[in-house]
Design goal:
With 347 residues, the chain is of the alpha/beta class. It has 13 helices and 11 strands.
């Protein structure tokens, strides 16, 4: 699951070496003895104001003010397509900040978290579930979300199956081949584990979980009958249908949840405060009219609206807590191990 920039094809030895360097960097980071409150944040961060995200460093020498900002959007089937979607926003971000802005096509959720933690990623759109990992392990500060002028935003967890199956309800998943997205995905894994259990079906007990890697993969896997069913984000399903990648009639929605927040947008905690302010303003003042963002997401959203991690991610944190999720180096390594196993099965 480790993928920095465009080196996804690196030999396993190289991956192991990179992993060792990341772990060494983590281990070398001393805890701040003066920190009075940390909550679930990693030892290198502090949360003295109680907003559940890492505080900006008080020591000026620890602040980042790079000449080039690296921007990344949550992993999708074809990262290059979304580089074009965000081109106009990145140009606007460059204008507002006076910095060059470079695209990073992340190929996994953990790669985004690691890139931000290592200082290689500065601004990002991180998916719902992985947002919590980004906040606690990488000092990620979410400040915006795609939404509407009236404040509406979000997506639902939808359990889908192929139109030809006899699966009619959650209870019918027993003994079937079900695709989850990744361990950290909210609608693709964390929420189903918590919510399906309350309906009498326990993933990994009543059915074997197969990780697809991305919502796109789960959806197309169901459409192509590779999986019997899959829990996915409604926003991704709608977007793929709107783009003609499948027909709505190809799948049936068996069950859906209440709304969750969708991808969050924000920056790493140790950027200079003036730069943080400019990045926040760039999101909240960007005009979507006539842009590729409007064309891609316009049926669900037409602007970025402000959010806070403490308030808007409350339900997501509760679900992860119920599932026993911990935000540690070992937990992130565990996500990678599971993804690697899935890759080997594909070969």
């Amino acid at each position: 699951m480790l993928a920095f920039m465009k080196n996804a094809r690196a030999p396993m030895v190289g991956v192991a070496s990179a992993m060792a360097m990341v772990i060494a960097a983590w281990a070398a980071s001393p805890a701040s003895a003066a920190c009075k409150n940390r909550g679930n944040l990693d030892v290198r961060y502090c949360d003295e104001d109680g907003d559940l995200v890492a505080d900006t460093p008080k020591d000026p020498s620890k602040l980042l003010n790079p000449s080039t900002l690296v921007f990344s959007y949550t992993p999708v089937e074809d990262p290059a397509v979304y580089e074009n979607v965000f081109t106009e926003f990145m140009a606007y971000l460059a204008k507002k900040t006076g910095k060059r802005v470079k695209w990073y096509g992340a190929e996994s959720y953990a790669a985004q978290v690691e890139a931000m933690r290592s200082g290689r990623l500065h601004v990002a759109g991180i998916s719902t579930g992985p947002t919590v990992f980004g906040v606690n392990l990488a000092g990620y500060v979410p400040v915006a979300i795609m939404g509407k002028a009236d404040g509406r935003f979000g997506y639902k967890l939808q359990l889908i199956t192929h139109k030809s199956t006899n699966i009619k309800a959650v209870k019918d998943l027993k003994g079937r081949k079900i695709a989850h997205v990744t361990p950290s995905s909210n609608s693709g894994n964390q929420a189903p584990r918590a919510l399906f259990k309350s309906m009498g079906i326990t993933p990994d007990k009543d059915y074997k979980v197969t990780y697809s890697g991305k919502h796109d993969n789960s959806i197309m896997g169901v459409a192509n009958k590779d999986y019997d069913a899959a829990p996915v984000a409604s926003s991704v399903l709608d977007r793929m249908i709107n783009k003609g990648q499948l027909k709505r009639s190809d799948v049936r929605i068996i069950w859906e949840s209440k709304a969750f927040p969708t991808t969050s947008y924000g920056y790493v905690y140790n950027l200079h405060p003036d730069l943080q302010k400019k990045i926040r303003e760039a999101f909240l003042t960007f005009d979507w009219t006539g842009t590729a963002l409007k064309k891609e997401f316009g049926k669900q959203s037409d602007r970025f609206i402000p959010i806070t991690f403490k308030d808007h991610w409350r339900d997501v944190r509760t679900i992860q807590e119920q599932n026993g999720v911990t935000y540690t180096r070992a937990a992130l390594q565990g996500l990678k191990v599971k993804k690697k196993k899935k890759k080997k099965k594909k070969k």
